[in-house]
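In practice, a research group might receive sequence data for several interacting partners and want a quick structural hypothesis before committing to experiments. The following worked case mirrors that situation: the sequences arrive first, and a predicted assembly follows.
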Amino acid sequence: MTLAGLMMGRPLLVAPLLRYAADYHGDTTIVTRSVEGPLHRTNYADTHARVQKLAHALIALGIKPGDRVATLAWNTWRHLELYYAVAGIGAVCHTVNPRLPVVQMAYVLSHAGSRVLFFDTTFLPLAVGLKAAVPTLEKVVALCDAANLPAEAKGMLTYEELIAPQPETYEWPEFNENTAASLCYTSGTTGIPKGVLYSHRALVLHSYGMISAVRMNVEDIVLPVVPMFHVNAWGIPYAAPLMGAAQVYAGRAMDGPSLFSLMDEEGVTCALGVPTIWMGLLAHMKTMGRKPKALRRVVIGGAAVPEAMVRAFELDFDVDVHHGWGMTETTPMGVINTLKPKYKSLPRAAQIDIKMKQGRAIFGVDMRIVDEKGAVLPHDGVSAGLLQVRGPWVIKSYFKEEASPLTEDGWFSTADIATLDGDGYLHITDRAKDIIKSGGEWISSLDLENAAMGHPDIALAAVIGAEHPRWLERPLLICVPKGDVRPTLEQIHAYLIQKVPKWWLPDAVEYVASLPIGPTGKVQKTTLREQYRAYKFAS
Ligand code: AMP
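A structural hypothesis for the assembly, expressed as tokens:
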């Protein structure tokens, strides 16, 4: 028989993260490039005061525990305030991705039953349309003050007017830590979006995991380039206050030059985002011939990082790259790549090979790979199988869905194909549906794309399986060229043969002006497969 521990069972809740930062790091800054353009500066103490005003305002609007309050907003201090006030009163902050097709936005708002929508003025027409289309939506509030309310929105309630009359102190209620705090829908690229409902407990534990994963410390100035409408900006808005780290938000300006100047002027030390964002920043760093002055490390995830990107950051600009893997369903951080001490003495090139892997699990996330029959495969770095995970910040059920997404023994199947090596490094070879099945063998589209993106004349590459009379599927390489040069298939082969097995070499290359990018900044292979459905390889 076990013996019960005798420690306090204080609940792990989100609001105390911010209260802690206000008490112990009150003058630490939060800087935003506002939607209107100028920089906005605040700190944890003032933010906590405004969050308490907002809590009162939400209650005055009739928001009750469990209600869903939606946002259609960029990365700003007001969005941060909403994260905390909504969750703090026991309601649920439903972040809507403005890049979703409008019908899907209306669908997720209705499915969630969200009652109020806070929107950045850039989304005014959208917000008006959604209010008309979604029956549960009672009110829309513009995230600005009266002076910045667009003329066509005259008479609409603004955020600043909403909170202005409210008192600055509010006693945060205590409730069960398994209460829902925020809601994010999957990006819908593989069907109807599904709701992932994060609990306070999951978000707080994930914050501890996150600070250790990105080695955040009190001296850091952190910029989550990843949007706050996608998986809580990877949990940074919760994790940074826990550490007392300063935060910088880019608003809507995510292009390379804007990011560069913001990072440079604000002394950003650590930034996090998907590869497509870093392409813009890197191009601008090359133009400037330097990095933003204080930038020490970048965390890149959400899609596989191209080797050329790691090399550019590490070798040209002396910025540490940490590759990471996660999903909406895993809050999202699952693994992060840090070099084990035994690899520190390796030559830089060999270190970069290791850094290309997605990384090792952070404490709390268990991982295994299984074959098609569900048998667990060895962690030998070679056996590839379906990745399954479990842990306190991994989904148990989708919102309002009865069918369990878990295996009988309680694991969540990710739909990613991966290997795990003896050190625990995870290497994602593909999404299950993207892998190319050539004559019964598997070709990793991710590895092939990555290799192609190392070619000096190729900016962006995607590989899909196209129908083949003999092999069932063969790789088709679709590229965006860097300039006017378009290497021939033979030239591409001559380059790739140094990097991948001969039988992986693509059967054809097609050049396009751009690749379809989805609502979370990733290349949309489903769209490409649709476009090239009838593709015929030249015989
Ligand atoms: P989402 O839920 O939209 O964030 O997408 C999660 C999916 O993105 C994962 O299941 C992976 O397929 C993909 N993904 C995330 N991080 C990585 C990574 N570092 N390398 C390759 N794929 C990734």
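Before designing any experiment, note the following. The mean pLDDT is 95. The first strand starts at residue 29 and ends at 33.
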